[in-house]
Amino acid sequence: MLCKALHNKGERIFITAKLPDYIRVGRNDLIEQYLFLTTSHDGFGSITAAFTPIRIVCNNTLNAALQGAANTIKIRHTASAHDKLKQAHKLLGISKQLAGELEELFNHWSRIRITDSAVKRLIQLAMAPSKEVLQNLQTGKEDQLSTVFNNVVSSILDYSFTSESQQEATTKGTLFGAYNSITGYFQNVKAFRDEESKLKSIMFGSGLQRSQTAFNLCEEFARHGVTALN
To answer: Which Pfam families does the protein's record reference (predicted)?
Structure first.
C-alpha cells in the first residue's frame, strides 16, 4: 500500500493510500483504488476514511456511493488500538466489496448506448444547482435557465465530446462516458481557487454531490432507459 500526504496546512491533513488492485472496465480502461483519509492534526477530530476509485486515463475521481452501501467510515481518535484495527479491517472489506460491484456496474454502463441529447439532459439534471432550476428543466422552461448554468452544461458537453479520455471504447457514446463527463468536469475543467478547494469539492462538497446525482441518474437510465431523464 502506497501512502501520500496531499495537504498539511490549516487544521486538516489529507492522505491517500493506494491499494494494489484495479477495477477494469473493458479490456484496458483501468481504475486505481485508493483509501482517502482526512483528519485534524490537533488530535481531537475523528479520522474519516473513504474508498476512492480514480480512473487512470483522465484522473477522474469516481467516488459516488452505491445505493444502500457506505463507502466511508469514521474512526474516533479516542478509540483503542484494537478498535481502530477493527475499523481498518472493516474499511478494507468494504473496499473489496465495492470494487467488485463497481467493476460489474461500470462494465455494464460501458455497453449501454446513450444519445447526445440524452447526455445533455442527464448533465442538466445532475448539475441543477437548485429546486427551481430542476423544476424549470422538468417543466420544459429551458428559456428560464441562467447563462451561467447553460455555460456549465456546455463546458461539460464539450469535455464529453472532445476530451481524448472520452473517446475510449468504454466511454464514447456510452452511459459510462456520460458519468465520466461530469466527474471529469470537476477534475479537469472547472476552475477552483486552489488545489485544496478542488479537493474539498470533489471529496466532500458540490463536486461530490453533483457526481453522486449523476451516478444515481445513470443507475436509473440503466434500468429504465431515457424515460429515467423525464
So the answer is: DUF932 (PF06067)
